[in-house]
Design brief:
The complex is a heterodimer. Chain A is mainly beta. Chain A contains no helices and 11 strands. In chain A, strands 2, 4, 5, 9, 10 and 11 form a 6-stranded mixed β-sheet that branches. The relative contact order of chain A is 0.35. By secondary structure, chain B is mainly beta. Chain B has 1 helix and 11 strands. In chain B, the strands form 2 sheets. In chain B, strands 2, 4, 5, 6, 9, 10 and 11 form a 7-stranded mixed β-sheet that branches. In chain B, strands 1-3-8-7 form a 4-stranded antiparallel β-sheet, with no helix packed on it. Chain B is globular. The chains are: A mainly beta, B mainly beta. The interface between A and B is medium-sized, with 26 and 28 residues.
Chain lengths: ~110, ~120
């Protein structure tokens, strides 16, 4: 089977930097994705790492270490609108995508 | 493109009734996924299709659930008979080569309440 672990909640202040970690146990691993979901709406894609290293997209960066089965999402210059749930998801052989339980990020003024 | 379209957006039904949820994926996408989201269980993968063929239905909770994809532009998820524990938000998502890019496009979801 597959398992993913990420913190259930994270709180940070506006303008700060926050890191959301994700560890996984799976077979047939292809890559790690990150999604954002506001208030139960449609999850939206943020980033994808297939290879080790850091991928940067504006204020958001995502990191993957395949040897450690570990990744993280880094959010910089936090804004109030970043308050949302963030999900890591493992991409598996055959196109399957399995999501973690999600991390609820609260950004305080 | 209008994105992934799901219907109905909200459904309230009574236990024992049949429920049919519908999804129109983004044109050209060859992967279609059905997920269920609850507070307790998060985003669970129920089933996914590639080129209209079911690839993995191991997440379908029991025989009361069935899903079909008769063509590239339409899929249904049916629950018969429905039970209160089926209450959840059901998301449909489509992707091009999601196994390689990890990118799925989600619909707005169908919020199901079974009384």
């Amino acid at each position: 089977g597959q398992s993913l672990e990420q913190p259930s909640e994270v709180t940070a202040v506006e303008g700060a930097i926050v890191q959301i970690n994700c560890t996984y146990q799976t077979s047939g691993f292809y890559g790690l994705s990150w999604y954002q979901q506001h208030d139960g709406g449609a999850p939206t894609f943020l980033s994808y790492n297939a290879l080790d290293g850091l991928e940067e997209t504006g204020r958001f960066s995502s990191f993957l270490s395949r040897s450690d089965s570990y990744g993280y999402l880094l959010l910089q210059e936090l804004q109030m609108k970043d308050s949302a749930s963030y999900f890591c998801a493992v991409g598996l052989q055959g196109g399957k995508l399995i999501f973690g339980q999600g991390t609820e990020l609260s950004v305080k003024p | 493109d209008a994105g992934v379209i799901q219907s109905p957006r909200h459904e309230v039904t009574e236990m024992g009734q049949e429920v049919t949820l519908r999804c129109k994926p983004i044109s050209g996408h060859d992967y279609l996924f059905w997920y269920r989201q609850t507070m307790m269980r998060g985003l669970e993968l129920l089933i996914y299709f590639n080129n209209n063929v079911p690839i993995d239905d191991s997440g379908m909770p029991e025989d009361r659930f069935s899903a079909k994809m008769p063509n590239a532009s339409f899929s249904t998820l049916k629950i018969q008979p429905s039970e209160p524990r089926d209450s959840a938000v059901y998301f449909c998502a489509s992707g091009g080569i999601s196994g390689l890019t990890g990118e799925l496009f989600f619909g707005e979801g169908s919020r199901l309440t079974v009384l």
